[in-house]
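LAB NOTEBOOK - FOLDING QUEUE
OPERATOR: T.R.
BATCH SIZE: 2
PURPOSE: Compare the predicted structure-token outputs for two unrelated chains run back to back under identical settings.
PRIORITY: normal
REVIEWER: second-year student, initials M.K.

ITEM 1
FIELD SEQUENCE / FIELD STRUCTURE:
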Amino acid sequence: MRIDALPGVVLSKARNEGAGSPVEFSTAEGGEPLRCCLRDATPGEDIMLFGYAPELPPSPYREIGPVFAHAEPCDTTHDENAYPADWLGRPQVLRAYDRDGRIHPATRVHDGTDPTAAITDILTDPDVVQIHSRNVSYGCYMFAIRR
């Protein structure tokens, strides 16, 4: 599996031009899930909140939702083959998609104890082309997973 954070071009556009919707800049209280570097914010960091539509083919399932990121460029280096360490133990929705951008029946919720096993199981279905990890409570996009 490969874990993808938000693309740099998306972050740059949001920071410099907006994201097609309002961008709110603030100071982190701590714990905000940063989609640029796939970790939680620490108190006092400059962050932004903006609307993001994850990469999918045009379909009724393409959504725009709020995401947090650093307000300035950060070190986006992360292990693309490992689940984000700050988010281990958090239940998440693993929304599977097919090549047409439709939600696939392999979609499920994992309880946070072994997300890698749940992801691996979903990716065994050849019709699944990507998975979006989403927050259980708010439904917000966290990151994309591909083979």
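ITEM 2
FIELD SEQUENCE / FIELD STRUCTURE:
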Amino acid sequence: MASAVKVPPLNVRLGATRFDPDDTPHIDASALVPGSPEARAVVAVCPAGVYRETPTAVLADAAACLECGACLAVASGGLRWTYPRGGTGVRFREG
């Protein structure tokens, strides 16, 4: 007779991985002026499509962010963006 395999609980298998929905987003696009060259550039350059421009605001979906910092390269001050807690963004190993 074969013995049953005991599977550890999900929280043990995931280890330290956790998702905290109450974390403060690392992106604040509220100071971007809709229709401005800066807002258009931030929306256009983001490879993850994090930013969306409406007639009244520039919205950011921080959960979709790849943390590449491309938006910072074109922003001139209206975007407040910090690396999320515990991360330092994308690290390139070659090239």
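REVIEWER COMMENT (ITEM 2): The helical segments are 10-14, 37-45, 70-74.
FOLLOW-UP: none requested
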